[in-house]
Design goal:
The protein is α/β, with parallel strands linked by helices. The protein contains nine helices and 19 strands. The structure holds flavin-adenine dinucleotide (FAD). This is FAD-binding domain-containing protein.
């Protein structure tokens, strides 16, 4: 049966790559995941997951495990630094419509749950894909062939570029389309940087000090900075910890400087710990709307293990071209 099914090559073992791998595993479609990193690092804050994905988790038979790791929510609020609520979003109508509740889950817990669905021999680490070619095999069938930096070559029927915002698969695809004259002009433009983002997760907190966390529903509260180009969000998680996401909204000048810094720091989408540290220092006095007494982001940072901080650029751009020939792009790519 498998011989008649297409073989899928997935470049990138991020959230998109492992989600697709889990689905192909369930559907018994042959696939291989190739990841440039030598190991997976569990980074990030919280993700909000609703009906569109939960229906898939049900089919993958991981819904109950997912729910045990997550915390449901029905509303989110936006307030200012004085503690006034500016807006509230009620998710109940949406949840009634889809038939599924919404959940907050930490990014590492979610990633590990998906990764567990993939047999170890189907993910190859330390495989940085450099070249992509559409070729014919000995029987004149169309195939796609990719080459990793260590010289290994993989051949399959479908190539999925799940390799993030700076996707090598996308770059190779766009180079080909540009030569053919079929790449839209907007797809040639760089990703814009408008925000830097500090994310992290505290250790489980003292519920007497942070009584809001006793609520069986998760909290999701955004604070808009007063006369400062920052906003910050706190989320409650299933294990009594708090995830935070601090956004620095860049103006045109700082955006350009951040872009240059980004290229100096590597092509990975995360910055080193020193960069996270300087953003912590800049923002630790910002007030947060949870906890007894006047709490600040610093109270969360002081309870966050160093390796659970990360600082990422938020690049937001929708590319027009997402497939051509035997190649398709997925996720941030
Ligand atoms: C450090 C970090 C923290 C984040 N935290 C949050 C959060 O808290 N909340 C939230 O909502 N969103 C968060 N995001 C954003 C969200 O996680 C991304 O939108 C999501 O991860 C995108 O998934 P993806 O699979 O498309 O790409 P990615 O997760 O970026 O995965 C791409 C993978 O491809 C690999 N790769 C890249 N190039 C190659 C190559 N040439 N060959 C082989 N492999 C390659 C990379 O190493 C990486 O593992 C975070 C992103 C990052 C990077």
């Amino acid at each position: 049966m498998n011989e008649q099914r297409p073989t899928v090559l997935i470049v990138g073992a991020g959230l998109g790559g492992v989600m697709l791998g889990a689905l192909l595993e369930k559907a018994n479609v042959p696939y291989t995941i190739l990841e440039r990193a030598s190991t997976v690092r569990s980074l990030g804050a919280a993700l909000s997951i609703g009906g569109t994905l939960l229906v898939l988790f049900e089919q993958l038979q991981i819904l109950s495990e997912f729910v045990s790791l997550a915390k449901c929510y029905t509303q989110s609020t936006v307030g200012n630094e004085s503690g006034e609520t500016l807006s509230t979003t009620n998710y109940v109508p949406l949840q009634t419509l889809t038939g599924y509740r919404g959940y907050i889950i930490t990014r590492p817990a979610f990633y590990n749950l998906l990764l567990k669905q993939i047999p170890a021999h189907k993910i190859h680490f330390g495989k940085r894909i450099l070249n992509v070619n559409e070729v014919k095999d000995d029987e004149d069938n169309d195939k796609v062939r990719i080459q990793a930096s260590d010289g290994t070559i993989y051949q399959g029927d479908i190539l999925v570029g799940a390799d993030g915002a700076y996707s090598a698969v996308r770059q190779r695809l766009y180079e080909r389309l540009k030569l053919e004259g079929t790449l839209p002009k907007s797809d040639e433009e760089d990703l814009p940087f408008t925000c830097t983002c500090l994310v992290g997760q505290t250790e489980p907190l003292d519920l007497e000090e942070f009584p809001e966390l006793k609520d069986p529903e998760s909290l999701m509260i955004t604070t808009m900075g007063t006369e400062k180009p920052y906003s910050w969000v706190v989320f409650g998680t299933g294990n009594g910890s708090v995830c935070f996401m601090v956004l620095h909204h860049l103006d045109r000048t700082t955006s350009r400087a951040a872009q240059e810094q980004r290229f100096r720091n590597s092509e990975n989408s995360e910055w080193g710990p020193h960069a996270a540290q300087s953003m912590c220092d800049e923002t630790r006095d910002f007030s947060i709307p949870i906890g007894i007494g006047k709490k600040t982001l610093g109270d969360l940072y002081d309870r966050t293990p160093k390796d659970l901080f990360s600082k990422v650029m938020l690049e937001e751009k929708v590319f027009t071209t997402w497939f051509s020939g035997r190649t398709v792009l997925l996720g941030d790519g």
